[in-house]
Design brief:
Elements: H1 9-18, H2 23-34, H3 49-58, E1 65-71, E2 77-82, E3 88-94, E4 101-103, E5 107-109, E6 124-127, H4 130-145, E7 156-159, H5 169-180, E8 192-196, H6 200-207, E9 214-218, H7 224-230, H8 239-248, E10 257-263, H9 271-280, E11 286-292, H10 306-318, E12 323-325, H11 339-346
Parallel strand pairs: 4-7, 7-8, 8-9, 9-10, 10-11, 11-12
Antiparallel strand pairs: 1-2, 2-3, 3-4, 5-6
The structure holds iron/sulfur cluster.
Iron/sulfur cluster is lined by residues 110, 112-114, 117, 119-120, 162-164, 197, 218, 337-338.
């Protein structure tokens, strides 16, 4: 047995049977870990002491633990989480009056190589397991709310930390199913957003999932050449094919596709870019998140001014394309995606 978090109820039943226990013990363990967020077998008092000792000797609930927490003046908390093999992932907790959002990672590093992203500088170390992905959420919730209670109603999850979700498809989907499960974390798929830089075959696969969260596409450019410059992945999965996949995507009644657009001064933030974006998304039920770029000495871009971002937003809104400016969070603690782990690695 290794770590038990991130295993399905069936997997845990089979595991306890293999050590001579009745299968219902597996269901109890699943419930204790994923719904009550107990990370220590000794907290699971409905299990016998003998079984708890047996489990403690053979397995861990999770091998992940907090390496550091950074607190921003705006309430954002950023977690560097050490995984079992010593690599680190990062997660961010963003409180809001109406709901909390937890941003999580799905890979250590990333292979996609977007030119405006700090994580890209790390390259890819490895995929994270479903257990490691879920551990981030459990660790953050426990640090904020304590263990033993249900997931606070209204918790939103976004897969926008380190990594490309669709290059770790199976483990991401497994983690989502366990997190959506009422006997698991109980975070409904409509409260979860998976972000992709545009892995087209996986978009078609995701469209057919029964448990399917919201989908966000990291777009950031409106021409093939511009997008290839910023996101070299565009050579393989072109903008034209990506937009076709978005048009083919079977949206639910109230669903919209989200398009993320990082605003880079003098690169993709002109009025003409905004008008092209409107034309590109014409006919797709979409909303656009305009993301102020978080500059870093390692990155070759400057952030668009807030006046420019607002002017860009206005053009979209006037053409009935809903557009929102993402409020920068935790800037005093290197809050941009991938900044923390990448920085940590560099020192
Ligand atoms: S923006 Fe996302 S997909 Fe692109 S390099 Fe960064 S983590 Fe990877």
């Amino acid at each position: 047995m290794d770590q038990l978090i991130g295993k399905t109820e069936e997997e845990l039943c089979a595991l306890v049977e293999a050590i001579g226990e009745k299968p219902f013990r597996g269901r109890q363990i699943y419930h204790n870990i994923h719904q009550r967020r107990m990370l220590d077998f000794d907290q699971m008092t409905e299990l016998s002491k003998a079984l708890r000792d047996k489990l403690t000797a053979a397995a861990k609930v999770t091998e992940s633990q907090i390496a550091s927490v950074f607190h921003s003046t705006d309430g954002t908390r950023r977690y560097l989480i050490r995984l079992g093999d010593g690599l680190e992932s990062e997660a961010v907790f963003m409180p809001d009056e109406r709901r909390d959002t937890i941003c999580i990672s799905c890979q250590v590093g990333c292979a996609v190589g977007c030119k405006f992203c700090m994580t890209a500088q790390m390259g890819i170390k490895r995929n994270m397991t479903a257990g490691e992905i879920i551990s981030q959420v459990v660790i953050v919730l426990n640090e904020v709310y304590g263990a033993g209670n249900e997931t606070p109603h209204g918790t939103n999850l976004v897969f926008m930390g380190m990594g490309e979700s669709f290059l770790n498809y199976d483990e991401v989907m497994k983690s989502i199913r366990i997190m959506a499960d009422e006997k698991g974390l109980g975070i409904r798929p409509k409260r979860v957003t998976v972000s992709t830089s545009g892995i087209i075959p996986a978009i078609y696969q995701f469209a057919n999932e029964t448990v399917r969260p919201n989908l966000a596409i990291s777009l950031t450019a409106t021409t093939e050449a511009e997008r290839t410059d910023l996101m070299p992945l565009n050579r393989k999965y072109t903008l034209g094919e990506l937009i076709k996949a978005c048009r083919d995507y079977p949206l639910g009644e109230r669903e919209r596709l989200t398009f993320e657009y990082v605003m880079l001064e003098g690169i993709n933030d002109s009025d003409e870019d905004a008008r092209r974006l409107v034309r590109l998304l014409n006919g797709i039920r979409a909303k656009v998140n305009l993301i102020p770029h978080n500059p870093a000495p390692e990155l070759p871009y400057r952030a668009s001014s807030m006046e420019r971002i607002q002017a860009f937003q206005q053009i979209l809104i006037e053409k009935d394309l809903p557009a929102f400016i993402r409020r920068p969070r935790g800037q005093d603690i290197s809050a941009a995606c991938g900044q923390l782990a990448a920085r940590h690695e560099a020192v």
